[in-house]
């Protein structure tokens, strides 16, 4: 009788725990929905009286930029979150009345969109990436009204700005040329339009105009950021700078600034030459600390010679720990030097990383081929993917936060170009993100984002 009672209590406790678990799960998910043809994320959320954000939270795979809602997919449907309705405040100004979160976002593109020269061809591809982002976010229930103008180098930018549709934009992407900045800067400030400068140009207006967002920064700014992260990441390393005798190199300013910072931080550093004999070359390396090697050129031929000397050094000194620290240019040399990148634990600073093996990259390249019947240009970075990342980041941000969107929070699901902006003094915002592309000794590539 005691044994029977004990079994009964055991199974009762077991089924009670199962019931509690099911009840807890039921509190979060109320059912499943099988997607039908032509259904959208917006329509499904309306069907169940939930927000798009609640539906995406219950189905995390939806957060991927290249996610597509397909017929037959099964979605988890959460219960609506109970919220206390706040009193509706009366609109205080025109911006409150015209809430971008409740209508189609009006996007303007002012770039050289032509087939005359390389600038036009590259910007056409970038624009196609923007259109792909607009198509992608349709599945999130976000509508975009796009207007594009051919802002050629010899064109009249004021004529473009006189178009009545220009003043209605919430976001303008452009220009490509510095000489067009004065007119466009004054225009967006007057009409309170966000301006995204997608590529590196001289834009002193950034210092005063709070509506400007600049993606690419000056070499001085990037070098300073790289040195800051280098000093933090290689605090306990011995730095070896190799003079490569390249009279055309522009990397000397970086290595000179790095040496000054290493001196201030009391970090060990030695200098050797690419033409040094084996004995003198070897003396530059520490036997007690790991070494990090930097060249004062970004060229591929000198890099190949440096790897050859380092491989010879490892033969005679197999216990030496050697890491390489390079330049963004090196991302173009993977076909020639990939094996050595892995072998010497190489770090390459960059503001982008094109990963041809990632599922998102493959999908975007395939969609580009389907939509435009051609392949993306063989360039680094890929212009179409850059356009996709830029548009996706800003359009989803505007839909989420309205005109208060500043881009201060990064989007983890970028494909090639991470974005995160910070205020520049009392003026506009500039992108602050930087990557270290790391080729590990076990033949992996990882990106470290700062």
Automatic annotation (TrEMBL):
Stretches of the chain forming a coiled coil according to its record: none
Keywords: Signal
Keyword presence, Magnesium: no
First and last residue of the signal peptide: 1-23
Domain LysM residue range list: 31-77
InterPro entries, sorted: LysM (IPR018392), LysM_dom_sf (IPR036779), Peripla_BP_I (IPR028082)
SUPFAM superfamilies: LysM domain (SSF54106), Periplasmic binding protein-like I (SSF53822)
Pfam families: LysM (PF01476)
The name this protein goes by in its record: LysM domain-containing protein
Protein source organism: Xylanibacter ruminicola
């Amino acid at each position: 009788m005691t044994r029977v009672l004990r079994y009964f209590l055991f199974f009762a406790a077991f089924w009670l725990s199962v019931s509690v678990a099911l009840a807890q799960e039921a509190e979060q998910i109320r059912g499943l929905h099988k997607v039908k043809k032509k259904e959208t994320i917006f329509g499904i959320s309306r069907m169940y009286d939930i927000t798009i954000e609640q539906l995406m939270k219950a189905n995390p795979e939806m957060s991927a930029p290249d996610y597509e809602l397909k017929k037959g997919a099964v979605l988890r449907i959460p219960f609506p979150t109970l919220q206390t309705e706040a009193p509706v405040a009366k609109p205080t100004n025109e911006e409150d009345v015209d809430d971008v979160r409740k209508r189609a976002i009006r996007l303007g593109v002012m770039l050289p969109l032509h087939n005359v020269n390389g600038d036009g061809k590259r910007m056409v591809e970038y624009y196609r990436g923007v259109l792909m982002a607009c198509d992608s976010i349709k599945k999130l229930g976000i509508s975009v009204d796009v207007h594009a103008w051919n802002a050629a180098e010899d064109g009249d930018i004021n004529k473009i700005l006189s178009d009545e549709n220009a003043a209605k934009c919430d976001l303008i992407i452009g220009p490509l040329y510095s000489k067009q900045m004065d007119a466009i800067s004054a225009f967006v400030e007057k009409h309170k339009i966000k301006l995204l400068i997608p590529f590196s140009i001289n834009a002193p207006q950034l210092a005063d105009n709070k509506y400007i967002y600049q993606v690419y920064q000056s070499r001085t700014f990037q070098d300073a950021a790289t040195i800051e992260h280098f000093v933090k990441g290689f605090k306990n390393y011995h730095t070896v700078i190799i003079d490569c005798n390249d009279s055309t190199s522009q990397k000397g300013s970086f290595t000179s600034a790095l040496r000054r910072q290493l001196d201030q931080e009391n970090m060990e550093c030695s200098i050797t030459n690419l033409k040094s004999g084996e004995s003198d070359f070897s003396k530059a390396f520490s036997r007690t600390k790991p070494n990090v090697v930097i060249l004062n050129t970004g060229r591929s031929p000198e890099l190949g010679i440096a790897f050859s000397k380092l491989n010879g050094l490892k033969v005679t000194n197999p216990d030496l720990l050697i890491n390489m620290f390079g330049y963004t240019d090196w991302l173009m040399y993977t076909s020639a030097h990939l094996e050595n990148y892995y072998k010497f634990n190489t770090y390459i600073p960059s503001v982008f990383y094109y990963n041809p093996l990632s599922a998102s990259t493959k999908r975007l390249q395939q969609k580009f081929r389907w939509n435009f019947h051609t392949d993306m240009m063989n360039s680094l970075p890929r212009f179409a993917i850059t356009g996709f990342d830029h548009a996706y980041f800003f359009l989803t941000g505007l839909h989420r936060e309205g005109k208060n969107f500043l881009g201060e929070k990064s989007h983890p699901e970028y494909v090639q170009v991470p974005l995160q902006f910070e205020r520049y003094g009392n003026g506009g915002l500039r992108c602050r993100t930087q990557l270290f592309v790391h080729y590990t000794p076990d033949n992996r590539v990882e990106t470290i984002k700062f």
